[in-house]
């Protein structure tokens, strides 16, 4: 409700562990983001520990900005 990245999937931090198998199905690297970058940093550390290719994008505002500038 407060913001998102176009085409993103919203998974609350407390659901990451339960959805690990689902996340392992993605063929590309994951970019995680949240309002400030704190929760996405926690999720990134957890997923990397479990062998997933992912990066913390920080705030969803930063990810939106980066995405818009790459397509411009």
Question: What would you note in describing this structure?
Answer:
The protein has 72 residues and is of the alpha+beta class. It has a domain at 29-71. Helices cover 40% and strands 15% of the residues. The protein is built from three helices and two strands. A two-stranded parallel ribbon has the order 1-2. Strand 1, helix 2 and strand 2 (54-59) form a beta-alpha-beta unit. The mean pLDDT is 90.
Descriptors:
72 residues; alpha+beta; two-stranded parallel ribbon; 3 helices; 40% helix; 15% strand; globular
Strand content: 15-25%
Query: What can be said about the biggest beta sheet?
Result: 2 strands, parallel
Strand order in the largest sheet: 1-2
Q: Could you say which overall geometry the principal axes of the C-alpha atoms support?
A: globular
Helix content: 40-55%
């Amino acid at each position: 409700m407060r913001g998102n990245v176009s085409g993103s999937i919203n998974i609350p931090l407390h659901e990451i562990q339960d959805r690990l198998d689902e996340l392992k199905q993605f063929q590309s690297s994951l970019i995680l983001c949240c309002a400030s970058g704190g929760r996405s940093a926690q999720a990134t550390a957890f997923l990397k520990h479990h062998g997933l290719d992912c990066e913390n994008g920080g705030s969803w505002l930063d990810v939106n900005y980066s995405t818009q500038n790459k397509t411009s």
